[in-house]
Design a protein that fits this description.
Strand content: 5-15%
Structural class: alpha/beta
CATH superfamily of the largest domain: HUPs
Order of helices and strands: HEHEHEHHEHHHHEEHHE
CATH class of the largest domain: Alpha Beta
Distance between the termini: 38 Å
Largest sheet: 4 strands, parallel
Number of domains: 2
Number of strands: 7
């Protein structure tokens, strides 16, 4: 059984800090860690300008429902030149900042492992963050037992985890095309725009940042719903309220990692 295998993998640690976003992957890892390790499990959410408004509150609510102890740490990935430069290795620098912080905390708390929520489907996409994880000895219980996203969601539903059907919400920098510098003002603008569009009732979306233009990606269902002049006008006003001068609505449905399609044209700077 997948749950038994996951519990067995987690049980090999004498304690664990879980890198916890409140999304379904890290929530399942946190839930199982709490079930297996009890008070030796701790969920940690990293707080930085790249965290969207409301995500921390959501993570806290999920942690309470699971019952796991939960804390926050401040990370400063924007202080890293490689992160701000936003080459194809941006996530490497982001995760290096995160795992350096969590590894130090694990050592201070005498906790044997740091867990991430990476799952088996993540190895099929560009994931430089996995290199940073390997350099810091981070474990991926879901990946260790071969659980992909759909299996993760199924187990999360069985365990009654509130984020079982929560749409993915990666860091705000993922909306910035590779090669465009990341800065706090850009991240704030993206966050404001997405919150404004979400307030219109759209659930799964991204606002991609192209300088003065905000390009909105909606799920297939929401794209059908938005296919009226009035809906387009409302979305246009919402995105402009965040400071964008122009607004585009992508005619194709939202797809996670869509900016990764240009990776072959962007230089790679991952540290060796």
């Amino acid at each position: 059984m997948p749950l038994a295998e996951l519990e067995a993998a987690v049980a090999t640690a004498d304690g664990a800090i879980v890198a916890f976003s409140g999304g379904v992957d890290s929530s399942l890892v946190a839930s199982v860690a709490h079930r297996v390790l009890g008070e030796r499990a701790l969920a940690i959410t990293a707080v930085s300008p790249a965290l969207a408004e409301g995500e921390l509150d959501g993570a806290r609510a999920v942690a309470r429902a699971i019952g796991i102890a939960h804390e926050t740490v401040r990370t400063d990935e924007l202080a890293r030149t490689g992160y701000r430069r936003n080459g194809r290795d941006r996530c490497y620098h982001c995760k290096t900042e995160l795992y350096t912080t969590l590894a130090a905390l694990a050592a201070a708390r005498d906790v044997g492992a740091v867990f991430s929520g990476a799952n088996a489907d993540d190895v099929g996409d560009w994931r430089p963050g996995l290199k940073a994880a390997a350099e810091h000895g981070v474990r991926h219980p879901l990946l260790e037992v071969g659980l992909g996203k759909e299996q993760v969601r199924r187990l999360a539903r069985e365990l009654g985890i509130p984020s079982a059907d929560k749409p993915a919400s990666p860091c705000l920098a993922s909306r910035v095309p590779y090669g465009t510098e990341v800065d706090p003002a850009t991240l704030e603008r993206i966050d404001l725009a997405e919150r404004a569009v979400r307030a219109l009732g759209y659930r799964e979306l991204r606002v991609r940042h192209f300088g003065p233009t905000g390009r909105v990606e909606l799920s297939a269902a929401d794209l059908d719903r938005a296919n009226t002049a009035a809906a387009h006008a409302a979305i246009d006003r919402a995105v402009r309220s965040a400071g964008y001068l122009d607004v585009e609505i992508d005619p194709e449905p939202f797809r996670s990692g869509s900016l990764n399609r240009v990776l072959r044209t962007i230089p790679l700077h991952v540290a060796s």
